[in-house]
Structures are given as structure tokens and as C-alpha cells.
Design brief:
The chain contains nine helices and seven strands. It is of the alpha/beta class.
């Protein structure tokens, strides 16, 4: 769901696994879909970890645990905290669709695969890169207290563990920051500047 980004304060879902690739985020069989329905792809997120072959929830997987199973909403489970090297593997954009479709607005990790990181940004999911020490603190804190909240301040580019007060700054390009804060995709951004572009083209034709 496209929303403007400002300050997101939410509980988190921990996924303390490294090298989670895009086939694990969304299995290849879902790439044949001809829809971009958010619920369809949200239901397919981590499909082979969440459900067995009969479609039954897998006990113990984090999204099936009672303390983390509530669908993301205002202030609840909008942040996924994942292990190092999140989104490696194929470049499928469907992985970002699945994360966004499930309802996550932020993914925190110590490292993202570059293509997946850009796919998240293009689909209104904010990838936040933190130090390995800060990531370890968050993962341990959320496991011990599922009510722990994290504040992600997009204007200030900071992420704060509200249980400890520890804060880190994250990087984001000025262009993507503007787009997220104004709920604009690349086409929207160009349309917003239509008059400027037309004026430039008119002046250029004069020479």
C-alpha cells in the first residue's frame, strides 16, 4: 500500500537468518502470476517456510507465532528485522511486492543485496542498513520482548531502539527519500515536474 513516509514507530518481526534469498522470500512458482494484487503476493511471502505442502501453517515459523502473527497495522509489526545479506539471489521484483503486500513498511538489516534494496525502495518499502551490533541488539530485544518498539524517522534518517534509546543513522538517496516522503513513484515524480520539463524543451527548441 502506497503511503507517505515520515516517522514510523512500530513493534517488529524478527527473522534472525542470514543470506535470505529472493526464492525464500517468494518461491519461483509465484512469478507466473499475472496479477499485482497486494494480498496475493502478501500471502505468498515466505510461503514455503510459513506453510507445509497441504497449506497448513508451520508451527514455530515466526509469522505463525501468536506474538508475531497479527497482520501489520498502525504501530504493530510494520518492521521486519532480518539477518545479514537479505534479498540475495535472483533480481525478481516479486520479492519486494510480497514484502509490501504483507504490510511491512520497513526492513532492517546489516546488509542488503543491491538489486533487492532498490526493488524495495521502488515498491514503497524502506530498507534500513544498520551496524551488525545494532542489528544483534534489535533481534535479541524483540525475541525477549515482542512489544519492543522501534522508531524509524525518515526525515532525520535515524532508527532508534525505544527500549534502550540506542540510535543509528541510516543512508538513503535524496531522490528516494523525497519520493517516499511524498508517496511518489518514478512516473509520479516526472509528472510533478511536467511544467519544468516542458519549459526546458520549449527553450531547447529555440536554439
Amino acid at each position: 500500500m502506497r503511503q507517505k513516509f515520515d516517522i514510523i514507530e512500530s513493534t517488529c518481526v524478527p527473522l534472525p537468518l542470514e543470506n535470505v534469498d529472493t526464492d525464500q522470500i517468494i518461491p519461483a512458482r509465484f512469478l507466473k502470476a499475472t496479477t499485482k494484487d497486494e494480498k496475493f503476493f502478501g500471502d505468498a511471502l515466505f510461503r514455503d517456510w510459513r506453510f507445509d505442502r497441504e497449506g497448513n501453517p508451520v508451527p514455530g515459523f515466526v509469522l505463525n507465532r501468536p506474538e508475531f502473527s497479527a497482520e501489520p497495522s498502525e504501530g504493530v509489526h510494520q518492521i521486519l528485522v532480518a539477518g545479514k545479506n537479505f534479498g540475495s539471489g535472483s533480481s525478481r521484483e516479486h520479492a519486494a511486492w510480497a514484502i509490501a503486500g504483507y504490510g511491512f513498511r520497513v526492513v532492517i538489516s546489516s546488509f542488503f543485496a543491491d538489486i533487492h534494496k532498490n526493488n524495495e525502495l521502488n515498491n514503497f518499502v524502506l530498507p534500513v542498513v544498520v551496524s551488525e551490533e545494532f542489528l544483534a541488539e534489535l533481534l535479541a530485544g524483540v525475541e525477549s520482548d515482542p512489544q519492543l518498539k522501534v522508531r524509524v524517522d525518515v526525515p532525520a534518517q535515524t532508527v532508534t531502539n525505544l527500549a534502550t534509546g540506542r540510535q543509528e543513522r541510516f543512508e538513503i538517496s535524496a531522490y528516494k527519500k523525497y519520493c517516499l516522503m511524498n508517496a511518489l513513484d518514478d512516473i509520479d515524480y516526472l509528472l510533478e515536474r511536467k511544467d519544468i520539463i516542458e519549459a526546458y524543451e520549449k527553450n531547447a527548441r529555440a536554439f
